[in-house]
Amino acid sequence: MVFSSVLFLFYYFPVVLLVHYLSPVKWRNAVLLVFNLIFYGWGEPIYILLMVFTIVVDYADGLLVGRFKAQGRDGAARIAVAAAIVINLALLFFFKYWDFIAGSLAAVGLNFMPELGLRLPIGISFYTFQTMTYPVDVYRGDARPQRSLVRFGTFVTLFPQLIAGPILKYKELADQVDERSWSVEQFASGVQVFVVGLAKKVLLANNIGMLWDTYKAMDSSQLTVAGAWLGVLAFALQIYFDFSGYSDMAVGMGRMLGFEFLRNFDYPYISRSITEFWRRWHISLGSWFREYVYIPMGGNRVGRFRLCFNLMVVWGLTGIWHGASWNFLLWGLYFGVLIIAEKLFLLKWIEKWPAACQHLYTLFLVLVSWAIFGLEDFGQMVSYMQAMFGGAAGGLADSAFGYYLRSYLPMLVIGGVASAPLARVLWDKLSQKAEKVVLPVLLLAGLVLCTAYLVDSTYNPFIYFNF
């Protein structure tokens, strides 16, 4: 079940809200837990057992860590934390990376690992990272051990962010799981954020994504230089509106249920460096790796060689987290090299450039990265990137490029404007009186238009659904 579906919008979520708020306060977490598991098991009932196993293991481990710390047995507490991390990573490795590694070994003649053909449990990358933070936070003293299995289960399975984030740390949500407030203003704000996210996904990402799918499926002999760049530009906008739209919907639904999640995107395409881009893109993932991997490895409080090593490890892991394919690892290492270069010397030069040049530098490198990210087949990736950099068999441009540019130009312009904070700045200048009139009209119009698209169209992909 995906958020951008008629089933979810007009049946599942309204029922969740109704039952949740009609239930006594002390039962609301239990009610949410049931609905969370129904949501997760809608498409893959068997993997509910995997999620329940993860919940029980990390819940018990958190209690053990808390007990050992209270007894002054720091060594035992560290072993308990390590055990939880190993179990979680082992499950993630088995379901997400086993077949990838088995296939890679088989390609070079090593056949000792059989390919199992297992389906990837939806959202396993997200909820595995979330559960691993719990024993670590308890060990560090950043959170108290959760005594209620129901409350901990609610945290792990919280459906608004279960399959696409943002990645939540236990210490950030512990108090809200135990006790949360509700107000009409908070609920209304949640509706607003949700509808904006839905519009990003349905009206922008889905429509722009069809242009990328066209160029992605195009034979290399038909690619032109201009067409290849047009296609990857479309993908850049699609993946942004797709993922940030889902994150906005998660934040909005969380508010409607009384939770406050941190924002996951902050207009990344206005960045003036790659370092800044990653402060604005998928903020919760960057924060997770920084706090639980980069800083424990020494962060930037080390020598230059170790700093480079730490960054390459973090960015290699960031890449492979996105998918079991070599292109994702290459994508992560690509950003690792760029960020190392900026930290060591490049950023000092870039800061002296005019602002426009800084933006162009960043957008150019980000667009190249999306070509790596979006094409899992290495042969296709190489051919596509050759086309981008002048080696297109179709030449500089052709009639097909002109046709697609004319057809999608209005959508690309809208996407470009919507990916920048211009609309927000203009909105903030509205008077409160005008806002009270305009906002409900825009939200209703957006909801109606999105619904019409969903009813009429069968094209409704979700890029991060497989991560």
Automatic annotation (TrEMBL):
Keywords for this protein? Acyltransferase, Cell membrane, Membrane, Transferase, Transmembrane, Transmembrane helix
Q: What class of enzyme is it?
A: transferase
The family database entries (InterPro entries) matched by this protein are listed as:
Ac/AlaTfrase_AlgI/DltB, AlgI, MB_O-acyltransferase, MBOAT_fam
Alphabetically, the GO molecular function entries are: acyltransferase activity
The record describes its membrane topology as: Multi-pass membrane protein
Going by the entry's taxonomy, the superkingdom of the source organism is recorded as: Bacteria
Give the subcellular location: Cell membrane
TM spans (from-to): 6-23, 30-56, 76-95, 149-168, 223-243, 305-322, 328-347, 359-375, 408-425, 437-455
Entry EC no(s): 2.3.-.-
Protein's name in the database = MBOAT family O-acyltransferase
Q: Give the species.
A: Pseudoflavonifractor intestinihominis
